[in-house]
């Protein structure tokens, strides 16, 4: 359904200048033909770096969009140098969020480079960037500039704090935004120091917000025929994701604290140390708590008035957790997993990465995606989280080399001639990867 509704978004069908129609035509599905993935025919011009933006555009690429990643000649995306670990000369960090993309290397500070960006925008559906507000506008590539040459464009800006306001000029980094938004304040062991989550969840949440916003804007453009500007930022994304923690404060002025693996409002709902590892167990209602007590051979605890319901268990948290913790220490993790199996109680081990990717459900859900990279051979990354009944998110293209597709894009998408291409290469306005 989504694919059929997005088909009119294709550049060929937007009434673009005839000089660009022929070059764009190859990207579009045939009229009345099978589309396959829902974003087939949608072109994304991606000027983002690091994590939030690339994560958003990678998800769009997984759904069939053509993603043209614009990189700085020579160095490319910042994350290309983030390591170790590296596979050959390639940063594993970069490889993790840049599949299904083409790379064009352009010097944006050169007026000729900015001109190429405008030409690409004119035959694209979406423009995504994560520069500090005003920086692209100074190059003639802000929303107002691009809107003049591409009124159909969905222009998504990803920043640290938003397009306006007292902090809008600050650089946006996950850890800082997580701190300002309160996430670090509520993360860590009880009575301990604030802790950064083990993966950049503020960046990733922002990428998912941007991904959804772009999809919504494309659907609205199908109705109105007009593009729009999307303001997506780390601070807003993380504050929105505070959900019930924020609501507790806004409605009850309750200032939360750090609970480690525990939960402020549900007991027991946390990790417990076993003889050889850890297990997380959650009792969301009184029946589940009674089942936990039965499995632990502590049936009498479930009848104690101090623990008869969740409210009482929260009030008497410390004593109850002490009793449960002592019992969990008596057996190995595998034994507890066997005893909880089929009980109806939510439970699971705290897995290492090795255990995660040996987990039977992870393997069943096909969450490992393998590709053949042009310089380092076979690589593996976490695959898409969602399955669809009408199509498969499979056969991914490997993350590109810097400027791997520069000449291809300039020739096939914009119709540049060989003499013009050579002049751009010689002057350093664009670069093509030497491997190709």
Automatic annotation (TrEMBL):
EC assignment: 2.8.3.13
Database matches in SUPFAM superfamilies: CoA-transferase family III (CaiB/BaiF) (SSF89796)
Localization per record: Mitochondrion
Domain of life: Eukaryota
Alphabetized InterPro entries for the sequence: CoA-transferase_III_domain, CoA-Trfase_fam_III, CoA-Trfase_III_dom_1_sf
Keyword Transferase: yes
GO cellular component entries: mitochondrion
S-adenosyl-L-methionine as UniProt keyword: no
A Pfam family hit: CoA_transf_3
Primary site of residence: mitochondrion
Catalytic activity: 3-hydroxy-3-methylglutarate + succinyl-CoA = (3S)-3-hydroxy-3-methylglutaryl-CoA + succinate; glutarate + succinyl-CoA = glutaryl-CoA + succinate; itaconate + succinyl-CoA = itaconyl-CoA + succinate; itaconate + glutaryl-CoA = itaconyl-CoA + glutarate
Keywords of the record: Acetylation, Mitochondrion, Transferase, Transit peptide
One Gene Ontology term of the molecular function aspect: succinate-hydroxymethylglutarate CoA-transferase activity
Family named by the database record: Belongs to the CoA-transferase III family.
Summary of the function given for this chain in its UniProt record: Coenzyme A (CoA) transferase that reversibly catalyzes the transfer of a CoA moiety from a dicarboxyl-CoA to a dicarboxylate in a metabolite recycling process. Displays preference for succinyl-CoA and glutarate-CoA as dicarboxyl-CoA donors and glutarate, succinate, adipate/hexanedioate, itaconate and 3-hydroxy-3-methylglutarate as dicarboxylate acceptors. Acts on intermediates or end products of lysine and tryptophan degradation pathway, in particular catalyzes succinyl-CoA-dependent reesterification of free glutarate into glutaryl-CoA to prevent renal excretion of glutarate.
Name under which the protein is recorded: Succinyl-CoA:glutarate CoA-transferase
Lineage, opening ranks: Eukaryota, Metazoa, Chordata, Craniata, Vertebrata
Name of the gene this protein is made from: SUGCT
